[in-house]
Amino acid sequence: MIFPLIIGILILGVIIFAHELGHFISAKKLKIGVDEFGLGFPPRIFGIQKKLGRWKIIRGNKESGDDKATIYSLNWIPFGGFVKIKGSAGEEKEEARYAEDDSFEKQKIWKRFIVLSAGVFANLVIAAIFLAIGFMAGLPTVVDDGFDQSRVIDPQVQIVQIQEGSAAEIAGLEVGDVVLKMDENEFVNHEALVAYEEDKAGQEVELTYSRLGQENITKLTLMSQEETGKGIMGAGLVNTGRVAYPWYTSLWLGLKSTVILTGKIIVAFALLIKGLIVGQSGVAESVAGPIGIAVLTKSFTEMGFVYLMQFAALISINLAIFNFLPFPALDGGRVLFLFIEKFRGGKKVSYKVEGIIHTVGFAILVMLLLVVSVRDVFSFSDSISGFINNIF
Fold first, then answer.
1. What is the DSSP letter of 285?
2. How many helices and strands (H and E) does the chain possess?
3. What is this structure's pTM?
C-alpha cells in the first residue's frame, strides 16, 4: 500500500525538519544571521520576511528580499526543511556581507560548535518526544509477576532467546517473535505455555506466531528435556504487554530511554565501523538505506502506532549519531575542522581546501547511498514487488 510510504516520508521529513530547526534556533539565539529557513526543499513557492516592522511577501526564487532579515519560506518539495545560515557555506572571503559581525565564520569557535551540534541535539530531542508519545499510548514492556497487571494492555508471550539446535531453531523461530497459539490453544502467559509443552515431549505441535505484525504458522516436534523428560521447544519466553503511563512519567521515560538507546547505538556504530575496517563478513549487509527503511516502515506501520513511534525514535537517534561522525560533509566533519582550527591557534583551514574536502566527502556519501540502495533492492525484492503491486 502507498500509505506506509507516505508515513515513512512524513517521519523522515519531521526528523530532518527538527534537525534544521535545531540549527536555526541556536543561530538565532546566538545572534548569527540566518538568510532563510524553509519548510520543504526549493524551489520556493513563497516566503515572508519582516522589514521595518512589517511582513513582506517574497514570491518565487528570483526575489531575494532584504539581506539583513530572515526569509521564512514554503517550498515545493514537501520533505523536511532547510536553513541557510549567513556565511556558513564557505562563501568567498571577498563578499563583504560574510565579513560582517553576524556572519557564521566571524563567530567564536564555541558558538560555531553549538550551531553545528544543535541539529544532532534536536534529533535526540525529537526521539525522546516520539518515545514519550509511545509511552503515553502504551509501549511494549516486559511484565513480570511483580508488575501491576491491571495496567497491561494486550498481554502476550514473546521469544527472547533461541537455543542452538532446538526445535524452535529448526522451525525457523526468531528472537522477537510473539507466540499466539500452540495447537488450538491461545496463550498470553508464558507459564501456561510452558505447562502445555511439558506433556507434549516428542509430539508434533502446530505453532501460530507473529513476526513484525505478520501472522505465521509452523509445525515443530517438541524435544524432551534431559533431566525431567518434559517437552520443550527450546526458546526463552517472557510475558510482555503494552503499558500506558501518564504524560509526566512518559516524558521522563522518553528522555531516559533516549539516553540508553543512544549509548547502545554508539557502541553498535563502533562495532560496525570496526567490522568494516577488518572486513568482518555480514557487517555491510546489516546497513539499510532509504529503501530498506521504507520496507521496515511498512512493517512497523502494520504492527501499530506505538511500534511506529519506537521505530521513528530509533531512526532519529541513528541519524543524529551518523551525522556527528567526523566525516567530511557531515556536521561532525565540520566540527572536526573547528578542532583543527583550535589546535592551530585559531588559524582556519582555507575555505577552498575545506570546500574541496567536504565536496569529496559528499560524493563518497552519495556513492555509498547508491550502493546500499541497490543492495536493498535485491535484499527486499519480494517486499518491494508486493509493495509496487499494491500501489498499481
1. G
2. 10, 12
3. 0.76
Q: Looking at residue 388, what is its pLDDT?
A: 39
The CA distance from 99 to 122, in Å, is 28
Number of domains observed in the structure of the chain:
1
Q: State which H helix or E strand residue 112 sits in.
A: helix 109-137
Residue type, 236: G
8 A C-beta contact, residue 165 and residue 215 = no
Vertex 18, ends 13 and 19: CA angle to 5°? 100
* Residues 6 or more apart in contact with residue 384 via CB below 8 angstroms: 291, 295, 377
- In-domain check, residue 314: no
* Structure confidence by residue, pLDDT tens digits, 89-118: 655 444 565 667 888 888 899 999 999 999
Domain annotation covers residue 71: no
Find out whether 212 and 303 touch, Cβ atoms under 8 Å. Answer: yes
pLDDT digits (tens, 9 = 90+) for 274-316: 766 666 555 455 555 566 666 667 667 766 788 888 889 999 9
Range of the domain at 155: 142-243
State the chain's mean pLDDT as an integer: 82
CATH number of the domain within which 211 lies: 2.30.42.10
Examine residue 194 and state whether it is found in any structural domain, yes or no: yes
Examine residue 47 and state whether it is found in any structural domain, yes or no: no
The CA distance from 390 to 282, in Å, is 31
